[in-house]
Amino acid sequence: MDASDEAALREKATNHNDGSVATDKMKDILEACRWRDLDALRVLAESPGGFLKDSIRQKAWPVLLGLPSAEDGNEPYTAQDDGSWKELPRHRDEDQVQLDVNRAFIYYPHHQNEAELEQQKAELSALIVEVLRRYPYLCYFQGYHDICQVLMLVLPTPLRAPAVARLSALRIRDFMLPSLAPAIAQLRLIPDILRAADPALWRHLSSTEPFFALSGTLTMYAHDITTLGEIARLFDVLLAREPVFSVYMFAAIVRGRRAELFDTPRDEPEMLHSILSKLPRPLDLDALIADTRALLDAYPPERLRGARGSPSSSSWRHTISPASVLKTARDPRACAAQSMDDGRAFFDRQVRELQWLERRDQAIALLRRYRRPAARTLGLAVLVAVLAIALRRSPPGGPTGPLGYLSTLLTRWFR
C-alpha cells in the first residue's frame, strides 16, 4: 500500500460516525481479512473505533496473528482441539496459573452468576495450561492471564489456543523468558523516547526509573483497563502494529500528563512513580493511538539517542537483543509469516544471551575483587580465562557483541 492509498483509506475509516460509513468500514475490514491485507488492517485498526465489534475481531485478529485459514487452503487449528493436551506433562507454572485465574474476571463480563463465573475461570485455566503444555519452554508470568482473558472472551473456542500460542511465542516472547531482564530492557526505551520528543519532561523525570510502565506494557494494558470494550479496541491496534508500539504508547501517556508531572517536584521520584504507575482516567483511546502513531513516526527506535547523545548509546542499540520481539517483529507482516519454530529459535537465542550476560556479570564481580595494583596481574589472568570461556559460549551478535563487552570490561579494569 503506497502513501496515497493509505491516506485515502485512513480518511475514509476516520469518518465512520455515520451509520452507512460504519457499514462501509466493516466491509473494508472483512475485505482486508479476505485478502490478508495487513497494511489495510493496520490503518483500519488505528482509525476511530478500531474493528468496531467482536464479530469483526473474530475475523481480523487471527489474520493479524498469522493463523492459517480455510480460505488459504490450509487446515485451521481445529485439529488440535481434541483434548490431547491434557495428557501432556504438567507445566512447572500451573500452580501459579490457578492462583491468578482465581482472581480473573473481576471487572468484566457483567451480569454473570456464580456458575457462569466458575465456568469462565475453568475455560481460562484450560486455555493457559493448554498453551503452556504444548509449548513447555514458555515461562508463565503474572498478568499473562489478563491477556488470555481478553482473547478468550473475543475469539471462538477453536481459535483461542492457537491465537494465544502465536501471540506468546512471536509477540510477547520477551515476557515469557526465564528472566524479566528483557521486559525491563524494553522499558529503558521510554527515557530515550522522551529525550527525543520532550527534553524538558525527560530532564524532569531523570531521577525516576521507568518501572512505572511495567504493568501496562507487560500485560498489553489488559491489567489496567477495566472494560472489555476498551481493551478489545486497544488490542485491535496492538495486534495490528509492531510490539514496540506498546512501549511508545506508554511514552505518549507520560507526555499526555506533563502538566501534572511538572506540578510534582523532580526530587520526589516516589510521587512521580505513583502518578505514572496508574493510567489516567478517563482514557481517550482513539486520541492516544493517534498520538502514539505520530510519536513512533517522528522518532523511530532506530534513530533514538542515548544518554551520551549518540544512536550507539541508545537503549535500542545497547540493551535490546537482536532476538527480542521488538526487533524480530519490527515488521508485523514478517511476524505474521513466522512459524512457532521461529519463535522457539528466537526464544533459545535469548536464553543463551541471558546466560552469557550472567557470566559477564560474574566476570565483572570477580574483576572487582582484584582492583588493587598488587592483584592486577592475577586478576587480569583470571578475567581473560573467564572471558575466553564466555566468548566461546556466547551467542553470535549479542546486544552489543562479545568484543564490545570485552572492551567494556578491560576499560573498567584499567580505569
UniProtKB/TrEMBL annotation:
InterPro entries: Rab-GAP-TBC_dom, Rab-GAP_TBC_sf, TBC20/Gyp8-like
Keyword Calcium part of the UniProt annotation: no
Region (Disordered): 1-23
GO molecular function ontology, one term from the record: GTPase activator activity
Segments forming domain Rab-GAP TBC: 51-242
Record-level GO cellular component terms: endoplasmic reticulum membrane
Key words of the record: GTPase activation
Pfam family, one: RabGAP-TBC
Gene Ontology BP term (one): endoplasmic reticulum to Golgi vesicle-mediated transport
Keyword Thylakoid: no
Protein name as it appears in the record: Rab-GTPase-TBC domain-containing protein
Taxon lineage: Eukaryota, Fungi, Dikarya, Ascomycota, Pezizomycotina
